[in-house]
Design goal:
Helix content: over 70%
Strand order of the largest sheet: 1-2
Order of helices and strands: HHHHHHHHHHHHHHEEH
Distance between the termini: 63 Å
CATH topology of one domain: Serine Threonine Protein Phosphatase 5, Tetratricopeptide repeat
CATH class of one domain: Mainly Alpha
Shape: globular
CATH architecture of one domain: Alpha Horseshoe
Radius of gyration: 20 Å
Length: 270
């Protein structure tokens, strides 16, 4: 690289390598240089947007993906990342529309289909979410995350037996995957409170193995519900406070249900 500092392709390549290593600030430096080398090139904006996502600078990430789409309106990756961020921010209408654009352009990409399914689930469109998770499972190898998502949709639709079947599939597919562990913990706290001790053990394992801050925040939310039902209010509050910190993006807690639950459990003024 030092021998070819003006090589756009190498800058982009190294930027992505830094993302894989978790060196996001270094990735941003390479993508910044790449953008300056050729402001009309699409790849540096997409890469920089992904790096900004990981540094929790989501407004900057959205700006990069918007610029990429201005240059190439049919760039599926930019639509997908934009939709994923908007959905995580709670703007489900715009997020799901962008994710549908992405999956229309790239029907077989499992990540795009998974993001769409999760956004539909989070938005409360459980029937569509169930169908979307089924699409993920039909396109690729068995996915613990997709089985758990479909189980949550089925439970919300009132089909508890089908939810249990899908959670069993998740555990059979990847018994130590954090998604499988969390799915079982979530089901126990929601539908089988007699298994709260086991639920707590599963949730703790899921938290320890969470692949991202946002996953960890979701898992901590479930752990807090378990603690609260067991009567351990201080532990529940501590778990929620950690979840709130992890889910804070640019001074906003993006998972409002976690913040609301924390405010519910915190003791009021005497």
């Amino acid at each position: 690289m030092d021998a070819e500092p003006q090589n756009l392709a190498l800058r982009v390549q190294r930027g992505y390598a830094y993302i894989e290593l978790g060196a996001y600030e270094k990735a941003l430096m390479d993508f910044d240089i790449a953008v300056n080398l050729d402001p009309a090139a699409v790849a540096p904006y997409v890469g920089r947007g992904k790096a900004h996502f990981h540094t929790k600078e989501w407004n900057a990430a959205l700006a990069d993906f918007d610029q990429a789409l201005a240059l190439d309106p049919e760039l599926a990756d930019a639509h997908a990342w934009r939709g994923h961020i908007l959905s995580e921010l709670g703007d489900f209408d715009a997020g799901i529309e962008a994710l549908r654009d992405a999956t229309d352009l790239d029907e077989t990409d499992l990540t795009k289909q998974m993001w769409l399914a999760q956004a539909l689930l989070d938005s409360g469109n459980f029937s569509a979410a169930k169908a979307a998770f089924s699409t993920v499972l039909s396109l690729g190898p068995p996915s613990a995350e997709a089985y758990v998502g479909r189980a949550m949709a089925e439970a919300a639709l009132g089909d508890i037996e089908a939810a249990q079947v899908n959670l069993s599939h998740a555990m059979s597919t990847a018994p130590f995957d954090p998604a499988s562990l969390h799915g079982r913990a979530w089901f126990y706290v929601a539908h089988q409170q007699q298994n709260l001790y086991e639920a707590g053990q599963l949730a703790l394992q899921a938290v320890d193995g969470a692949p991202s801050d946002l996953d960890k925040a979701r898992y901590l939310h479930t752990l807090a519900r378990i603690y609260s039902q067991q009567g351990y209010q201080e532990q529940a509050i501590t778990a929620l406070e950690e979840a709130v910190a992890l889910a804070t993006i640019e001074d906003k807690v993006i998972y409002e249900d976690i913040l609301a639950y924390l405010e519910e459990l915190r003791p009021g003024p005497e």
